[in-house]
Amino acid sequence: MGFRDDFAGTQLNSSWNVSLGPASDPNVLIVASSTVAMESGTSIGQSRYMSFGLGQQRSGLILDFRLKISARQANQAWFFGLFNNQNPLQATQFARFRFSGSGGVTDSFCETQSSTDTGGNEGIGSVVALPATAGTNNTYQINLTNQNCAFWAGGDQLPPSTALVTRSLHIPQLNTNLWIAIGVTNGGTAPSAQTTLTADLVAAIDTIL
Prior knowledge:
The chain has one domain: Sandwich (Jelly Rolls), CATH 2.60.120.200. The radius of gyration is 16 Å and the shape is globular. The chain contains no helices and 15 strands. The strands form 2 sheets. Strands 1, 3, 4, 6, 11, 12, 13 and 15 form an 8-stranded antiparallel beta sheet that branches. A 7-stranded antiparallel beta sheet has the order 2-5-14-7-8-9-10, with no helix packed on it. By secondary structure, it is mostly beta strands.
């Protein structure tokens, strides 16, 4: 199994599932010049995302992104990674990068979760210094197997340059249906300005021999 999208043309691949509320604005998601750009909006509590179903995996999965974020804003979180639901906000299992707020280090996370925990203690997040300089492309990778989940980031070209964290507990199960997703959520206070995430590559490969 393999998947790659370089976002050629002017329309998103029809296999992507898209939710861009609250308004149906054609400028919210633009495909051009081999990129896809998603605007965040500034509405309180709003979420937007695009997701692509990969189905069940077998041995392991490597997921690569090359993207940039125009700015970092308080009361706003961008996220991208693997989720067990086409709506990443409803996922109970995930492995994701998350930029939450304006701090380059204090608001950057690598996170995994393997099931719903009503106590709020099951998901694990590591605060990391993720590259997210405004307007600069960086690469990101999630390498998921049945034994662990490793996060990598850094540099303009693949593979990413820096190992960030590897987990062996509370990671998504490969034998479930997984979705690639990119999205944004706004908090209970409106962000001070709109931001844009621009991706020019999303790729996944099953690592079974």
